[in-house]
Amino acid sequence: MNYDQFKRNDFIHDDSFVRWVLFQEEDVFWQQFLQQHPAKANEVAQAKQLILAVQKAEEATSLSLDQKSIWNNITALISEEEIVEKQVSFLPRFWQTRAFKWAASLVLVAGAAWLWTMKQPAHQVNYQDLIAVVEAKSPRQEVVNNGPTTQKIHLEDGTLVYLEKGSRLSFPVHFEAKKREVVLSGEAFFEVAKNPAKPFYVYSNELITRVLGTSFRISALENSKQVTVKVQTGRVSVFKQNRIDIADPETKGLLLLPNQQAVFNRANELLNRSLVEVPIPIVAQKTLVKRQFDEVKVADVFKELEKLFGVEIRYNEDTLSDCILTTTISDDSLYDQLEVICQTIGAAYKEIDAQIIIESKGCH
């Protein structure tokens, strides 16, 4: 399927796109598509919002007063012909086969609600919104770093937080029995004490980061256009929250491994995974030694880089079977080493969804 020319309505009627929005199927493909076609981000975001609005409408049993009000306002924005067209052709075949049998009136209301919402300024989740919710759950304390340097904070569970200047952190006097929750505005590096029985949650604008024990950095500046989570050790799950609801997030999240990051665009609400700008070795410092490879298959070198940096490198092993290489692997820049290897064997590499993809026609 060629999605390059797709418009918003084309995405809405595409089975694969709907499966991705509703069930996160084929996530790697669609994340790759968005990276390769950034100009489509706005139309994709609009289509996602409309699909999710219709999904929510399925749960409704009658028109609420708010929906009626929205409908009255929206009739001034869309023509009668557009309403008829949506009524006839809105539901794609996939939804019908999955028994998503929405009433036509609910579909129209959901579509109208979405169009009306698009005309309103979006409300972004911020620090004060989050604090207003968590304060009702338990007594809390707040640290604001007004100094010129990073401030080190010791939490009661042994977690260390390195709070950057101009940032603030809210946390309870005592953590709950089942989970540890903090709220961040600004930027901080976390070294979370391991406790599998009590997960650690960081709420930062529209993102929730869930960990058991790891180290990572979050940048969630109040007026920034994006929120970023970068993992140094361990693994974390990152979730998007569309409303002020401090509770256990869904079990499905965007899983991040060492040297990976999640970037949430607050304008189009897209959450993307990629490698950090400068991947660092994940092996113990004392084991870091240069390793010499003499006349070996390039696949063996890629496997060594994978272990050293914790990064998945994908390639066609049959295509590269005749590629023999002599080189040295060290803790230097991953990208510099990939550049040298690819130039040597006449290949190229690119990053997609936090993976390195090697493109080669082979060595003959």
TrEMBL record:
Coiled coil: none annotated. Residues 151-236 form the FecR protein domain. Pfam families: FecR (PF04773), FecR_C (PF16344). One of its GO terms (molecular function) is sigma factor antagonist activity. Residues 293-358 form the Protein FecR C-terminal domain. This is Ferric-dicitrate binding protein FerR (Iron transport regulator). It comes from Runella defluvii.
